[in-house]
Amino acid sequence: MKKSSVYDCTIIDLDRHHSNRKGNLTVVENNKTIPFDVKRTYYLYDVPGGESRGGHAHKELSQLIMAVSGGFTVTLDDGIVKRTFTLNRPYQGLYIVPGIWRILDDFSSGAVCLVLASHGYDEADYIRDYNTFIEYKK
C-alpha cells in the first residue's frame, strides 16, 4: 500500500440505536460496518494534556479509530498531503488504510480512544521513523 493516500481514509458512521429510556447503542461488525475483520482491539486513556500518541505508520494494518468518550484530533500524512480529523462522536470512526502516517493529539480530559485493528501486533509492520516512512512511500 505504498501508493495509499490520505483520501483513501474516511469517517465511517457506525450503526447506532437510540432509546429514550435506555441510552444509545453503537454496533461494529466485521466486514459489514467496517471493511476488515478485527483481529486486535485496544484503547488509549488518561493521555496527559499536551501529549500525542501514534507517530508511526503501518505497512499492512488497517485501523478504525473511535473517540468512545471525549475527543481528540488525528492527523494523517501520506508523504505528500496531510489531513486532520476531529473525533468526538462515539458513533463515528476514522478508517485508516495501510501506508499512512498518523498522529493523535489534543486529547480532551477523560478522552478514550478505541482502536480496532485488522491484524495482531507485529513490530515488523510498524514504520516508526518519519524519514524511513518517506523513503518507503517513494
Automatic annotation (TrEMBL):
One Pfam family this chain carries? FdtA
Question: Do you know which CDD domains this protein is assigned to?
Answer: cupin_QdtA-like
Q: Which residues form the Sugar 3,4-ketoisomerase QdtA cupin domain?
A: 8-137
Q: Which InterPro entries match?
A: QdtA_cupin_dom, RmlC-like_jellyroll, RmlC_Cupin_sf
The protein in question is named Sugar 3,4-ketoisomerase QdtA cupin domain-containing protein
> Which organism is this protein's natural source?
Bacteroides cellulosilyticus CL02T12C19
The lineage, from the top, is:
Bacteria, Pseudomonadati, Bacteroidota, Bacteroidia, Bacteroidales
